[in-house]
Automatic annotation (TrEMBL):
Pfam families: NmrA. It comes from Exophiala bonariae. It comes from the Eukaryota. Transmembrane segments: none annotated. Residues 2-197 form the NmrA-like domain. This is NmrA-like domain-containing protein.
Length: 288
């Protein structure tokens, strides 16, 4: 159903336009939620500046990912730059992270039968595959956001919400059981991911927009974080000062990973970032 049919008012913004034209549509907005694309994090800067001038009462800048400290991931560092601007401008805020998405948690099956649902397949298992990582169905994120933005406890705070903890080995085990197919398991050490990052940096120095190199770096940085160092966990989130969503909202009715996997196997799941699939497939062909 179209948003307009639901009675939702649409306001267009051009973040490259003069700031006054961005401020006007934000007038009388109580809560501003940014869900900008992964490669456009810094495009939020004029949005945040306009929100401050417009008197937005609470901003939720784009986070919605795994737990990461500063200085270990390109995308996260850009997000932190936006977060810091929000704080410098004294805008009330809530930052919400959701763990690693279910939709990015699966390897390919040898038969190819679930390729339709996989935007970025898991090609290697970090470490020994037994590191737990918090995971969330992307479709459940909205449920947590609705609760958080109505909660005075989350004002000027960072919040970690997630569905379940899963290790890579357990995901492979469950997928093999549901699909009735064996899946080759290739384990990778930290040094291998660090080498991938170093190689990508060389390419990005000459060609900053190289999609393949950027994807290689980003995915290797993620694997090191959630798969080797174990940073995408409730314990590490607490160490960084996050509020625990399980304590705040224990009654949220979320999708279990098993239910999601059943959808994938049945052919009824939906993929994410489908627009990136042609570029990912082309990069795979170049590696073959």
């Amino acid at each position: 159903m179209a948003l307009k049919d639901l009675g939702i008012e649409m306001r267009a913004l051009d973040l490259d336009a003069p700031q006054d034209s961005i401020v006007k549509p934000l007038k009388d907005i109580d809560i501003l939620i940014s869900a900008i694309g992964p490669r456009d994090q810094l495009a939020q800067i004029p949005l945040v500046e306009a929100a401050a001038k417009a008197g937005v009462k609470r901003i939720v800048p784009c986070a919605f990912g795994p737990i990461l400290p500063v200085g270990v991931h390109r995308s996260r560092d850009q997000k932190e730059e936006v977060f810091n601007l929000v704080k410098r401008l004294h805008i009330p805020y809530t930052i919400i992270d959701v763990g690693w998405w279910y939709q990015f948690s699966l390897p390919r099956l040898p038969s190819g039968r679930i390729d339709y649902a996989i935007g970025v397949p898991i090609k290697t298992i970090p470490g020994d595959g037994d590191m737990p990582s918090a995971r969330t169905d992307l479709r459940d994120v909205g449920k947590y956001v609705v609760r958080a933005i109505k909660d005075d406890r989350t004002l000027n705070a960072t919040v970690f919400v997630y569905n379940e903890l899963w290790t890579s080995n357990k995901i492979y085990d469950l997928l093999e059981e549901f699909a009735g197919e064996g899946i080759p398991r290739k384990y990778a050490r930290a040094e291998e991911y660090e080498q991938q990052i170093a190689e990508a940096d060389v390419k990005l120095k000459d060609s900053p927009e190289d999609f393949k190199a950027r994807a290689q770096k980003v995915l290797a940085q993620y694997a090191l974080s959630w798969g080797i160092r174990g940073e995408n966990t409730p314990q590490f989130a607490k160490y960084l000062g996050y509020l625990d969503g399980k304590q705040l909202y224990p009654d949220v009715d979320f999708t279990s990973f098993e239910s999601y996997l059943q959808e994938v196997i049945s052919g009824s799941a939906q993929g994410v970032y489908d627009e990136l699939k042609p570029m990912m497939h082309q990069a795979d062909k170049q590696d073959q």
